[in-house]
Each structure stands twice: as C-alpha cells, then as structure tokens.
Amino acid sequence: MRKAKTQAHVFSISKHHVQSISMAIVAFIVMTFLIVTMLTTAGNHSRFSSSALHDWTAQMQSEWFIHILGNENRYYLDGLEDSSTPNLGTAVLELATNMNVEDPRTFLGRELPGFSAFDDTIAVAGEGTDFTTMSMESAPPPEVQQEQGNTTAGNDGEDSEQRETTAAVDDEDPLIHISHAHNRESFYPEIDEDEPFHPETNIVKVGEYLADNFRDYGLPVEVSADDIQHMLNERDLPYHQSYEVAREVVVENMEENDELEFFFDLHRDSVSAEHTTATINEETYARTFFVVGEDHPDYEKNLAMAEEIHERLEDEWPGLSRGVIIRGGSGTNGIFNQDLSPNSMLIEFGGVDNTFEELYRSADAMAEVLQEYIYEEIEEE
C-alpha cells in the first residue's frame, strides 16, 4: 500500500516538472521570436534608440500603457469608456507581427500591390481628409521620361554641369531655400499634354511666385531651378531617386550660403480637383497638404512646424489646408531631405486639375503665414 502511494507521489512530481519545463520552453521561444522580430524590422538608423522603442510600442494598443499607469494611479482609468484589461494575446500578436487587428491595412498592405500607399499616418486631418483622400505621388510614364531626358528643360543648351548649379539668388544672403524635387510636375489646365509633366510649365513657377512674395515681405530667398528630371535621365537613375539627387543640390546651396535656415520643397498632388480645390470668400484656391518624413530621428521637429503652419492657415483661410500626414517605411523615401533642417517642409500645392490662378492665391496665403512664422523664429534667436 505504501509502495503504491510512493509511486503516485513520484509520478505527480515528475508531471509537475514536465509542465514547468514545457512552459519555460514555450516562453523562451516566444521571447526569442519577439526579440528577433524587433532586431530585424528596425531600420539601421534607429536600432537600439528611443525612436526604435517608439516604433515598436506604437504597434501595441495604447490602452495597455494606460492600464499599466492605472495600476499606480487610478485616475488614468477614469477616462476610459471600457476599463477592462485589453487582451494579452492581441497585444502579443500586434507586437510580434506588426499587424493591428483594428486596422485592416496592416493585413493587406503586404499582399496587394500599391496598397502600401495608404500606410501614411494622418497627423492632422483637414476638411475632407481621410485614408481615401491621401496625398498621392505619380511618376512620369517611361516613354515620357525618355522623351524629356532628351530636352534641355528650358536651359537654352547649357551643359549638364551648368544646369546643376542654376539658382536664383538674392543679393543679400538668402534665408529661405525653395526647391522642387519633382520639378516637372505640372497641371492639366495649363498644358496641352496627355500627362501632367512638363519641362517648363510646372511647379517651379509656383516656387518662383512664392519667392516673390517672400521678397515683398523683406525676406531674402533663393529658388532652385535645377532640372532634377533631366539629371536623373542623364545618370540613368529611376524616378524614386529624385530626392537623393535634389539633396545634392540643397546641400551644395547650404555650403555656399551659411545663412539658410528655412527649406521648402514644393510639389503638386495627383488626386483630382474635388479634393484639391477649395472655395474661400467666393474665390477658388488650390488646397495645400504637408508631408512629413518619419525615417529620421528628429522628424518630430519638422512635424511640429508643419502642424503649426496648418493651424495658422486654417485660422485665416478655413479649408485651405488638407492637413498634415506622416510618411515613412518601405516604398517611399521617408526622409524627403527634412533631416537637413528642423525648419524643412514638403508642401503639396494643389493637384493635376488646378490652375496657376488658384495656385498663386494659395501661394499668397502661404507666404503671409510663413513670413509671420519666420520673423517670430528670427526674433526668438
């Protein structure tokens, strides 16, 4: 009788040890999987940094962090409609796979071609702005790129070395630099073409008009007239490297002009007029959109500036700004040369269906708001 009890006791202990070892093995596998996922999904520029931790934790439900704080201070839980603890399994899934069960885009983005274009984050939504009306880039068709590569783009036969240094510079040391990484983006109402890309009638005209406004406000400015598309074609580079080539131009100008502090890269959107046109005080304006690249450590400074300019525009011209979006990750540049200065912005002016008249009205409004902001920043220095 005693022998049977002893055997039962031994068997019970062995079963308990087996369960403990099994749980430890499972926990080890899960933790290893999570660590490997974190190390392999972070970019080289952000590994083992605060920005990497921010990106990883951003994948998890924010309620988890509120509940953690709520364990120490119950007031944090008062603002929650549902004070129940979030599902641990869901949190582990989101952290391990970068998939959010509440956001279908995270499931489809890796499977459907082009779906990653909707991965942008809306930092500030202007009127009518949602994930169906996001800013969209469109490259020229291959045949158009080849055709344009054989032109001199309005430089009257100058060689490529001369073209790469063309910039309208004021006599006084410029404070503002205006560039156009996609310099041939154009507008259907202003050209007789099948595609909205033109070597002369394009977004550069808006940049020149904006610069004239700055000069009227007493702010020295330079406008890059470099034909980035021609430079791409000469080097046989793809369109998505426009920002890398434009960066060379901006850096060169920064080295030549130490006083440069504010940098504006002007573009036009590819969406239709219903999303890019606003009627304000019985006049039509080309709506603006601010794009902030998040793939560099200090992007929040650029974001703060964009949000501030958006708010000021909305105070004076309600509906003019479509908002501020954050763009990064695979499939896009994700920096847009904004790492060169905290006072750098990418501004979309209108879309393919807007006219220069509408664009210039928007440039007038933008210049008024920006000059106030710039003078305030100068006074603080």
Automatic annotation (TrEMBL):
Keyword terms, alphabetized:
Membrane, Transmembrane, Transmembrane helix
Signal sequence span is: none
Q: Where is the composition biased (Polar residues)?
A: 145-154
Q: Where is this region: Disordered?
A: 133-172
**Any stretches that span the bilayer, and where are they?**
21-42
- Keyword Membrane, does the record have it? yes
Instruction: Answer yes or no on keyword Disulfide bond.
Output: no
Check the record and name the NCBIfam families matching this protein.
spore_II_P (TIGR02867)
Spell out the protein name for this chain: Stage II sporulation protein P
- Lineage of origin: Bacteria, Bacillati, Bacillota, Bacilli, Bacillales
